[in-house]
Each structure stands twice: as structure tokens, then as C-alpha cells.
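haha ok so turns out i had the wrong file open the whole time. this is the CORRECT one, sorry everyone. sequence first:
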Amino acid sequence: MRAYIVGGSAVKVDRHFEYSYRDLAYKVLSSCEACGNAEYIVVASALPELMAHQVDLGVHIVQWAGRRVPVVRVESGESSGIAAVEVATSLIHSGTARKVVVLGVEKVTEYPTYIANRMYSLILDYEFEVLRGVSPPVYAALAMRELLKVGFSRECFSSWAVKMHENATRIPHAMLKFKISPESFKEAQVLAEPVTLYDSFALGDGASAIALSSEPVGYEVAVEVVYGSSEVGLPAYARDRVSELQASTKLLKQLRERFGVDLRKVTVELHDSYTPYPIALLYSLGYIDTRCELSELEFVNLSGGLKARGHPIGATGVYQVYEVFKLLTGGFDGVSVSSEVGVVHSMSGPDNASRVLLLRRWR
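then structure:
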């Protein structure tokens, strides 16, 4: 039995101080026409125990939304959203349910930014990394330094951020809907030399939902989930180079070898929590060299990516899938693509775990 995405919705990524986890979930489910009559709900969320002191979040969301269907919550760090889609498609493939809603929801602005960043750091190994003062920006800085040594310029990373901000200006649910210039990096706050605030993702609250069905007939549009796969990588401290994203590279190479996927010709959402990671990944796959020509990658991160759309941690993967679904079936106002194929890539930490999905427009 095949699985098709038949609809979805997204709340603007922002600092939603006025909304709780349940409020955000209710808001996005209410705006998703295709999400009705679901037989199962899969909730993706990474931090509710830390941010809201709440366990069993899925059940409380379902009760709050007035639904009476089975629910399960999936947590896999930053890649929770794609992991939830994997679970949902498995439910359909097995015949357990004919229609499943995947809901990604996260609240990260309940506390000051420094506390939220401390919570986010727990995607790393607490005992071996966090307790010793290692944080995600530190690994990003090491990765950038490695890439600078092989010949990339500092401007390469700023050009990625500039491109993401420009893309985000056209996306209704993006958080940072403003352009930046390469010159702005000169005065940006340093997170871990040479990584600055402008090299980092926008941290915000958010909720996104997609509806998956075993039967696309009866819906205006549909996108088939053709393939999904995941890989666990080595911890960054055990690699020869932090910038060697072996798990992500392996999965995207598999898409090229098995399905002929060329990232220059399909709609792509890459995980770009920090600017060195997409550059390292595209370099390892042979799509760019140290000259960092990004012009041929015109369909990559049209959402603005984690950098500018925003990164509500456990919900981000659902946003990515929703965005590729929208782009393949008509696009956003002023943003469209001719491709019938889309790729979603998500990872947790510096390639600790990586996940990919291959999507194809059905009609």
C-alpha cells in the first residue's frame, strides 16, 4: 500500500509567547482541511519535557483538539519531524491506518535565549560533550575552519545565509522575512569563531501538519512518499573531520544511484542549522567546489531553510515536507517550481543521525 501526502498547513515560525504547545497544535490542525477524519496522529516534538515540563504530549494535544484517535509521539532530536513521517508511512504501508496526520510542534521561547540554547545543546551527548563545554556552535566553527583550510572563502558561508534570507522573504510562514548583505557579517555577534549569529539558524516556536492517505483519489493534489531512509553517523568527536557528514552524504548518494536524483534539478530542502553544513554536504557530493558557485542550485531551500524560515527543532522536518509538498503542487504565492520530484534532508546534531525522503508529484 502506498502513502500520499494530500494536504498540510503551517503556522508562522515566530516567538509565540501567547500560545502553548497545545494552542499551536490546535491552530495548525484547524487550518489543515485535509487533516480531518484521520485514523491516527503522529506527533513530532523534541523538547516538551524540558520546555513545558510535559510528558505524553501527543495524548494531551489530541484531547485538546477534540480528536479521539490513536496517537504516538516521536522524538529523534532535530530529525524528529522526518522520523514521524517515517512512522506515519509505515502505518499506512502496513494497513494499520488509511489516513494519518503528522503534526510537528515545538515551543522554545518559554525561557530566555541562553536557556533555550542550553536545552538545544542536549542534542549532543550530555556526558561526553555538553558537560565538557562542547556546544553545537563549537562543532559548526570546527567544520567551518576545516572548510576554510581546503580552500573555501569566508564569503562562501555568508553567501549561503544571504541566499536563505532572500528566499524567506517570499514564504508566508518564514520567521526572518528580511534580506541581509555580506557586509553585515563583519559586525555580527560571534558565537564561536569564525561562526557568527548570521551563520546560525533562527530559533522559534512553530507547528506544521501534513495529511497522508493510502488513496490519493478524491483530493485536489497528491504527492507520493516514494522512499525514505535513515542513517546513524559517528559522533563528531570520533571523526577525522567534523565537516565529513558521512551519514548524510551516504543517504543522498543512494538517492542519486538508485533514483537518478540530481540536487540541481529537483526541489530540495537541506538541513542548514549552521552555514558550514550545507556547504560541506554539497562539496562532498560534488555539486560545488571551493569556488562555491551556488547559482545552479536554484531549487535548494526555497523556504529559506532553517537559517531564515526558522528552526522549531522537532517540528522542522514536518515544515520541510510541507514546503516541498506545496512547491510540487503549485507553490507559494510567487514561488513555484517545474520539478515533479522533491528531496527532504534532515539531521540531528552535526550528522549524528540523518534522514532523507524522496517525494514525487502524483498529480
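The CA atoms of residues 220 and 352 lie 38 Å apart.
again sry for the mixup
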